[in-house]
């Protein structure tokens, strides 16, 4: 199955999306069925307390003692036993197969942004599909939380409060260029593109400023950079 990802709203919407199932004034946590440590979910919920289970993420939530505020997806990865523990009004089946469950969740949530946990590991094709969706037209701001790293799509200009020596990797999903301050190897004048030029294993010399000419750049930081990344995406404590 192949498809082009596009969202009908601008990232950062927190209430104007008429098709939304979940509305939140702060970041939400999206929980998938991939690799997950209990501490990962605790880390996400401490910053984004509304829990949206994406298909098989419903079982992961219940196993850790959490009842999702909503379950969204085609529901082909949720057991009947798990669904029986969740009130039916919180379960939203979207049957179409032209988008992934992650995309279904993104377009069904109206919030300033999201932390996605349980979307890394296990299935590399699923993980790559998540990164593909992050760079889609109109996609909301999302931080993907992995076991050892965090990933987000740069929203144009990015300021990151990082300590000197912090690893900063840049990986283009589309052709994109930009400028930097605070990187050991500046990116000024470089044209990035998949299969042409990437920017992995760069290093901060202190606080970093990135400014891209358009969409398409993924920023990858160590797990310790989660709060710097969230601040760059506009997260505020609720």
**Rg calculated over all Cα atoms:** 17 Å
Question: What is the CATH architecture descriptor of the largest domain?
Answer: 3-Layer(aba) Sandwich
Shape descriptor: elongated
Instruction: Kindly report the name of the CATH homologous superfamily of the largest domain.
Output: Thiamin pyrophosphokinase, catalytic domain
Write up this protein:
The protein is built from 6 helices and 15 strands. The protein has 238 residues and is of the alpha/beta class. The chain folds into 2 domains: 22-147, Thiamin pyrophosphokinase, catalytic domain (Rossmann fold); 157-226, Sandwich (Jelly Rolls), CATH 2.60.120.320. Strands 2, 3, 4, 5, 7, 8, 9, 10, 11, 12, 13, 14 and 15 form a 13-stranded mixed sheet that branches. The protein is elongated, with a radius of gyration of 17 Å. The termini are far apart. 44% of the residues are buried. Residues 1-15 have low confidence and may be disordered.
In short:
With 238 residues, the protein is an alpha/beta fold. Helices cover 20% and strands 31% of the residues. The strands form two sheets. Strands 2, 3, 4, 5, 7, 8, 9, 10, 11, 12, 13, 14 and 15 form a 13-stranded mixed β-sheet that branches.
Q: What layout of secondary structure does this protein have?
A:
Blueprint: E1 22-23, E2 28-31, H1 38-47, E3 50-54, H2 57-63, E4 70-73, H3 80-83, E5 91-93, H4 101-108, E6 109-110, E7 114-117, H5 124-134, E8 142-145, E9 149-153, E10 157-160, E11 167-172, E12 176-183, E13 191-192, E14 199-212, E15 217-222, H6 226-232
Parallel strand pairs: 1-6, 2-3, 2-7, 3-4, 4-5, 7-8
Antiparallel strand pairs: 8-9, 9-15, 10-14, 11-14, 11-15, 12-13, 12-14
